[in-house]
């Protein structure tokens, strides 16, 4: 199992915590998703799930790597992603922790949807099994956190109604589901509405 491992080249600029005032709302949603078990850790201790919010046009704040297993987060668990290159499988982040292993997937959503200001990546086997191939779904042969996954997400924006649904299933990432929206509330409520359909 390779869950939780960073698969891109990460240039980490270690720095002080960023934008505490921006983290109040994201922490509210992170706490809610953690309570529901959508973010957490497997029995082997490897964490899952991550959230981000757009900061500037091509920058975003995201939960740090290996934070899914933590009950609560504070400003030391978030990082600013300020540069990325899908073709080089690279990313630059600045903050007290390295960026989540799913950062390139979040980056592609922000690139493809100018309206997206929040992205939530959760794990839930019941939702995953219920909605795979019923909602927009990435190729089952594509793993998380790779340039291939970023390309798959771009394909969904071109070939499916994902920009209307604002949610998709990661076919090759068992349990993985991503939602996005103009706000954290929109992205979170989309997830919760699908969860209530189970």
Characterise the protein shown here.
The protein has 198 residues and is α+β, with helices and mostly antiparallel strands. It has one domain: L-fuculose-1-phosphate Aldolase (3-Layer(aba) Sandwich). It is 30% helix and 26% strand. It has helices at residues 23-35, 103-112, 125-131, 147-159, 162-165, 184-195, and strands at 9-14, 40-41, 47-48, 50-56, 59-63, 78-85, 90-95, 118-123, 167-169, 176-181. The strands form two sheets. It has an eight-stranded mixed beta sheet, sandwiched between helices. Strands 2-3 form a two-stranded antiparallel sheet. A hairpin with a 5-residue loop joins strand 2 (40-41) and strand 3 (47-48). Helix 2 runs parallel beside helix 4 (147-159). The chain is globular and about 45 Å long. The relative contact order is 0.17. The model has no long low-confidence stretch (mean pLDDT 93).
